[in-house]
Design a protein that fits this description.
Length: 195
């Protein structure tokens, strides 16, 4: 009986030591190590593995932080991102946002829009004023995202989600998308992706 008790204590001590060794490095991780999980979807080279996933490399730090915060709070819905963001502290989100904003914007190899599509997109922009927030050349700034060169499928999905209010973390964008004809949104997505 004594031996069995000692073995149980020994096993518990070894298990605790192993768990401590396995857990401790998580707290000592560099920001590059912490962002390895992101690469699984957003791409190790900054090119998302799925065309409906956004590009993070080179995106505005303030915008990335706000999206992580909104996923954590549940203001922006995603079965994948909410559990990830809910485990992050504010400083983690700020660090991750800064890390990705310093990376070079990747070339997704998307073609430029045709002249007709570009003309329709420019006309839509004049009507709804995208560049009023996203700035000339759609580069964004601070908490406003870069749209130029973003994946066409991602852009189209976000415009549709704002329009249907499925994406509810920016009511002003929903109002703008509702006021824009669907064909103009299609043209904008194609035009922006090719910039």
């Amino acid at each position: 009986m004594y031996r069995k008790s000692n073995f149980c204590i020994f096993a518990a001590v070894v298990l605790a030591a192993v768990l401590n060794v396995c857990v401790t490095p998580l707290y000592a991780q560099s920001i590059a190590e912490k962002t390895q999980l992101c690469a699984g979807c957003h791409g190790a080279d900054g090119k998302p593995i799925d065309k409906t996933i956004p590009t993070l490399w080179g995106q505005q730090a303030g915008y990335i932080y706000i999206q992580l915060r909104d996923f954590k709070r549940g203001d922006r819905k995603s079965d994948i991102m909410q559990p990830i963001a809910s485990s992050l502290e504010r400083q983690d989100m700020l660090d991750i946002a800064e890390y990705f904003s310093k990376k070079p914007w990747p070339d997704l190899g998307q073609p430029s829009a045709s002249k007709d599509v570009a003309a329709r997109a420019v006309s839509a922009n004049q009507s709804i004023g995208c560049t009023g927030c996203h700035l000339d050349h759609f580069q964004g700034d601070g908490t406003v995202p870069r749209l130029a060169g973003m994946g066409k499928d991602y852009l189209a999905k976000q415009m549709t989600d704002f329009r249907s209010r499925a994406r509810g973390n920016n009511p002003g964008m929903s109002d703008l998308m509702l006021a824009t004809p669907p064909d103009d949104l299609v043209a904008l997505a194609e035009y922006l992706s090719g910039l």
